[in-house]
Amino acid sequence: MDIKITSNVENKMLNRKEIRFQAVYAGKTPSKDELRELLCKTLNLNPSTTVIVNVDQTYGAMSSNVLAHSYAKAQDMSIEPKHFEKRKSKKGAGDAAEAQAPEQKKEEKKEAPAEKEEKAHEKKEHHQKEKDEAPKEEEKKE
Predict the structure, then answer these.
(1) How far apart are CA 75 and CA 68, in angstroms?
(2) How many CA atoms, within 13 angstroms, populate the side-chain half-sphere of residue 98?
(3) CA separation for the pair 7, 1 (Å, rounded)
């Protein structure tokens, strides 16, 4: 993956750099984390104070236009919307939850056939009782 910096503007009011770049890649669209890491390596920025704000991709194109904000201090990042920070934290927490989920699904699958057999057996018994009771009712009517 390659990046080409299209604009690097310093916003002194907000103590940040507003960086626009084009990412060219092969295959699937890179994640925001991958884009942030590559940008930080290219421009020698701190990954913990750099936020990918927007990734615009044209359908079918193997490139994306990206907007990133890079702050000098972590304190200055309080300007950024809180959901950007939540997205970062969900990635790590989601991996642990995903690792546990397949194990739970396997256990559920093991239990499911036994439950299905039990329900099927109950249905058969219920239908058999109905069949047995139907002739008795007819005999009573006669």
Answers:
(1) 17
(2) 6
(3) 19
Along the 142 residues of the chain, how does pLDDT read in single tens digits?
889 999 999 989 889 999 999 999 998 888 989 999 999 999 999 988 899 999 998 888 899 999 999 998 888 888 777 777 666 655 544 444 444 555 555 555 555 666 767 777 677 776 676 667 666 555 555 5
Would you say 66 and 35 are in contact if contact means Cβ atoms under 8 Å apart?
yes
Residues ≥6 apart with Cβ < 8 Å to 62:
24, 25, 26
The rounded distance, in Å, linking the Cα atoms of 39 and 45 is 8
Residues across the chain: 142
Which residue bears the tokens 């990206």? 66
Q: Which two tokens stand for residue 82?
A: 């809180």
pTM beyond 0.85, yes or no: no
Backbone angles phi, psi at 43, to 5 degrees: -105, 10
In CATH, 2-79 is 3.30.70.330: yes
Pair 2, 23: CB distance under 8 Å:
yes
Helices (H), 60-141: 82-141
